[in-house]
Each structure stands twice: as structure tokens, then as C-alpha cells.
Amino acid sequence: MAADARVLKSEEEWRAILSPEQFRILRQKGTELKGTGEYNKFFYEGIYNCAGCETPLYKSTTKFDSGCGWPAFYEGLPGAINRSPDPDGRRTEITCAACGGHLGHVFKGEGFSTPTDERHCVNSISVKFVSESSASM
Q1: 121 catalytic residue (yes or no)
Q2: What is the pLDDT of residue 2?
Q3: Which of 120, 99, 95 is closest to 29 using CA atoms?
Q4: Low-confidence spans in the chain with pLDDT less than 50
Q5: One of 50, 53, 99, 121 is an active-site residue; which one?
Q6: pTM of the model
Q7: Contact 121, 105 (CB under 8 A)
Q8: Residues with Cβ < 8 Å from 71, sequence gap 6 or more?
Q9: pLDDT digit string (tens) for 71-89?
């Protein structure tokens, strides 16, 4: 399920396929308002794909309620997510390994009772949920 191929598009191509808000967050590293995302309190079985290129990123079994106001996952699918320090060095940005779309940030050592002690704080608009029943069709 890892990102096997890079998805390369010009900014104009991204603007043509993404909504203005998706473009602002995925391509310009924006953040949706706390508590407003579609998937914040959403707990169904399936896969969360990149909203830009449809690469599978997270399994629903790794999603948890962190109370932070954004969807939280404790790990991504192997090879699907890249990490890089923000310029200020305080946070670590997470992006789709296939298209480079901004997902959010990852935080470590916050004390959540998850197997990785990580919280991937993801913008809902950066991902697209595919239910388990839809995925198996």
C-alpha cells in the first residue's frame, strides 16, 4: 500500500482538480480550523487516502480520539508518509509521499496509550475516507 509512484503536477493542474480550500491546505501548507473537519469525530472502518492523489495513507484502526480538534492517527501505512522538520524546528510536518500534499504534523511523547506514542494530527480536508465495504468492491 506504500506510495509506489510519485504524482507530479504543476500548481495549475492542482488548482484545476482541488477545491480552493484543498489547494490552500494540501499545496500551501494551510490548516483547517480546529474542530471543523469532517473526520474529527468520525470512526468507521476503512482507509483514509490522500485527497490530492488518492494514495492510501492510514487505516481506520490506527485512528483515535485525541481531543485535539483534528483527526488523529498513531501511524501511517508503510512508506506512505514523509516527515520533515518545520523551519522553526518545533514541529514535524507530515506529507503524502506520493504527491507531497501537506497532511498536518506529527507529535511524539504526549502520553497517549497508543502503540507508537505518536499523534499524526491531520487536516480532514487532506484525506478522503473510503469505507471498508466500498474498498472491497
Answers
A1: yes
A2: 44
A3: 95
A4: 1-3, 137
A5: 121
A6: 0.91
A7: yes
A8: 37, 39, 40, 42, 48, 63, 121, 122, 123, 124, 127
A9: 999 999 999 999 999 888 8
